[in-house]
Amino acid sequence: MTSLLRRSRRQQPVDAPVISLTDVWMTYPNGKVALADISVEIPSADFVFLVGPSGAGKSTFIRLLIREQLPTSGRVRVAGRDLLRMRRGQVPDLRRRIGIVFQDFRLLPSKTVYENVAFALEVTGAPRPMVRERVPMLLNLVGLHEHAHHLPTQLSGGEQQRAAIARALVHDPPILIADEPTGNLDPVTSWDIIQLLIQINQLGTTVLMATHNQEIVNAMRRRVLALENGHLVRDEAVASYERRY
Amino acid sequence: MGFARFVGFSVVRAWQGFWRNAMMSLAATATVILMLVLLAALFIVIAGLNSGLEFVESKVGVTAELQDGLSETRVEGLVAEIEAIPGVSTVDYISPQEALTRLKAVFAERGEELDFGGADIRLQATLEIGLTEPEFARDVSLALTDRPVVTRITTRQQEVDTLVGVINVIRTVGIGAVGLVGLTVLFMIINTIRIAVYSRAREIEIMRLVGASDSFIRWPFILEGILCGLIGALVTVALVTAVWEPIQPVMVAVFQMPTAVSREFLATLALLLFAVGLGVGAVGSWISVRSYLGATS
Q1: Phi and psi at residue A238, in whole multiples of 5°?
Q2: Do B213 and A66 touch (CB under 8 A)?
Q3: Same domain flag for B201 and B82
Q4: pLDDT given at position A241
Q5: What CATH number does the domain located at A3-234 have?
Q6: What is the pLDDT of residues B227-283, one digit of tens each?
Q7: Which run of H or E residues covers position B126?
Q8: What pTM, to 2 d.p., does this model score?
Q9: What is the spatial order of strands in the sheet that B150-155 belongs to?
């Protein structure tokens, strides 16, 4: 079931950082400094939390990684690619190497769970046999095979987030970015999603999770990057979430 | 194989998009039809008038009425002099007797008999002067005015000038009208596709996040605009074909346009309608999608 995910992980050099930011500054045209002198390396197969209060720069950090924005200065490398030297035509290829899930799931309401996941393959020109093979495999992985033909509105919040995670994994990306994936979920369902992310991480995918959920960060005891007013105020291999966030 | 998948994906999504936003799509298609019907009418009228102009121009010549009683030698000399005038191609002497015969023939064609009531009517001798180009009519007329043996000069130049004037007015007004309607259609299509793009903003966002290329995002919308133009052109060509039978005799009789009956004319018109319909659809949707994708990339 997970052989495809495992196979591609072996192709990545294990010790090379899959995400690397060097002296990154991001200043908006209105003068607001969103990120100030950020240097971070995230190795392959790591599980990292990105924490900080609202407006700390978490969203900007994520937008830089998927090249929705470019930094004012500094260097950003993701999945072996220098994002500043990348041409516009190469961006789709980068984004196939990064899966991303959001707090609000962002599923298409008129499509079934199967169609939502398949859509992500179809719009990149994937052949039909590949769609027929990968979509059921991913729905199995996230435990949604029985809900394949349900519309998102017929699912619970946790199930919708599972569908979004399946969609994020269609291209077998080496990196999964989760932006507040438990923000709309109750505590029990949140832990379900975290368990799923751990499972995906154990298969070799680097997971970067932005969150406000103190309980999860403290319990997981993983590396934490803490941002405040655009500055990286903490980068600890095993850390807890400070109360003030 | 990859290209075929891309084309298939784009066509299917364009078709779905057209019907998902059916009211706006059909409104845009209706304006395309309006524009193309106007264009077809203009094309037919201008082609007819041009054909009529050619017919009149082919008949343009100068007729010089001569004094009575000119000797044969004098007439021959006059013919030779006129033949030497630049722009003159032929000079035919029509004797009074021959003129009378022609007049009788014209009456006979109408089924009447020429009757002068017993009077001894003698028609004037004339010279019918053919021209190499209709533009020479004025120069040739001027060259004849000083000759005392020529009593009156007539030409159809005025008819040509009037017709050219009418054609120019119709052409200018017609092109202006088609241009204005064309601009309206362009804005309708831009607006229709913009609404389609905005209504699928979430889809586009997801497509970008999962790594769809710009072509996969852009082309379904461009094809949706082209579909408006294509359906508009198909309907217009069907309308023109349906009214073609009654139009043909009018074209031939009013405009002296024998080419109107040819299939080639209809084929050229259909080609023009498809080219303009598809072109406006493509350009409108391309502008719309380009401005959106450019603003949100």
Answers
A1: -130, 115
A2: no
A3: no
A4: 60
A5: 3.40.50.300
A6: 999 999 999 999 998 888 887 777 777 766 665 556 788 899 999 999 999 999 999
A7: strand B126-131
A8: 0.71
A9: B88-94, B126-131, B61-66, B150-155
Which residues from chain B sit within 8 angstroms of residue A79, using beta carbons?
none
The CATH number of whichever domain residue B71 belongs to comes to 3.30.70.3040
Q: In this structure, are B77 and B21 located in the same domain?
A: no
A-chain residues near B5 (CB < 8 A): 125, 127
Chain A residues touching residue B210 (CB < 8 angstroms): 95-96, 120, 123-124, 167-168, 170-171
End-to-end CA separation in angstroms for chain B: 28
Put simply, the chain B residues between 214 and 273 with a CB less than 8 A from any chain A CB are 214, 216-217
Are residues B297 and A88 in contact, defined by beta-carbon separation less than 8 angstroms? Answer: yes
Chain A: closest CA distance from residue B10 (Å): 9
| ipTM (interface pTM) | 0.86
Cβ within 8 Å, pair B9-A123: yes
Split chain A (245 residues) into runs of 10 and give each run's mean pLDDT.
Answer: 47 71 95 94 95 92 95 95 92 95 93 96 92 96 95 96 96 96 92 94 95 89 94 81 52
User: Which residues, 6+ apart, have CB-to-CB distance to A2 below 8 Å?
Assistant: A137, A141, A203
> B148 and B240 in one domain?
no
DSSP letters for B65-76: EE-TT--HHHHH
- For residue B40, what are the CA distances in angstroms to A79, B33, B175, B255? 58, 10, 11, 16
Task: Verify that B216 and B180 share a domain, yes or no.
Answer: yes
Instruction: List the domain range (segments joined by +) for residue B98.
Output: 61-155
Taking only residues 193 to 222 of chain B, the set having a beta carbon closer than 8 angstroms to any beta carbon of chain A reads 202-203, 205-214, 216-217
Say how far residue B167 (Cα) sits from the centre of its chain.
9
Is there a single domain that holds both residue B39 and residue B167?
A: yes
Tokens of B60: 């343009």
Residue B290 touches chain A, beta carbons under 8 Å = no
pLDDT single digits (tens) B88-113: 888 999 988 888 888 888 888 777 77
Q: What is the helix (H) or strand (E) element at residue B133, kind and residue range?
A: none
Contact A96 B209 (CB under 8 A): no
What is the number of other CB atoms lying within 10 angstroms of the CB of residue A31?
A: 6
Contacts of residue A119 in chain B, CB cutoff 8 Å? 206
- Contact call for residues A19 and A47 (beta carbons, < 8 A): no
> Taking the mean position of all CA atoms in its chain, how far away is CA A63?
11
Q: Which of B204, B296, B7, B208 lies closest to A96, judged by CA?
A: B208
Residue type, A172: D
Residues of chain B contacting residue A167, judged by C-beta atoms under 8 Å apart: 210
